[in-house]
């Protein structure tokens, strides 16, 4: 690791929501109508901090997981 690039709490590193918030702005995403699927607690925390519903995927059939949680 190169020390000059090290950042102790970069806004884009989970659980910080920087990448999610930037995507919301750049792609006109409505956080209230969005979900974030992740496989770690830090994913869920980043989603929470961004105002997005987080769904914890613990493995298995991702398609079935998504279909079982979509509110159509």
What features would you describe in this structure?
The chain has 72 residues and is α+β, with helices and mostly antiparallel strands. The protein has a single domain, classed as Rossmann fold (3-Layer(aba) Sandwich), CATH 3.40.50. Helix content is 38%, strand content 11%. Strand 1, helix 2 (41-50) and strand 2 (53-56) form a beta-alpha-beta unit. The longest helix has 10 residues, at 41-50.
Supply the number of structural domains: 1
CATH superfamily: HAD superfamily/HAD-like
- Strand coverage percent: 5-15%
Give the second-level CATH assignment, the architecture. 3-Layer(aba) Sandwich
- Series of H and E elements: HEHEH
Poorly predicted sequence stretches spanning 5 or more consecutive residues: none
Which descriptor suits the 3D outline? globular
Secondary-structure class:
alpha+beta
Terminus-to-terminus distance: 46 Å
Biggest sheet layout: 2 strands, parallel
Number of strands: 2
């Amino acid at each position: 690791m190169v020390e000059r690039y090290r950042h102790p709490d970069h806004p884009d590193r989970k659980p910080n929501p920087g990448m999610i918030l930037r995507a919301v702005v750049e792609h006109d995403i409505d956080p209230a109508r969005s979900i974030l699927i992740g496989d770690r607690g830090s994913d869920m925390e980043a989603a929470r901090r961004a105002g997005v519903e987080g769904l914890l995927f613990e493995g298995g059939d991702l398609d079935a997981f998504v279909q079982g949680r979509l509110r159509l």
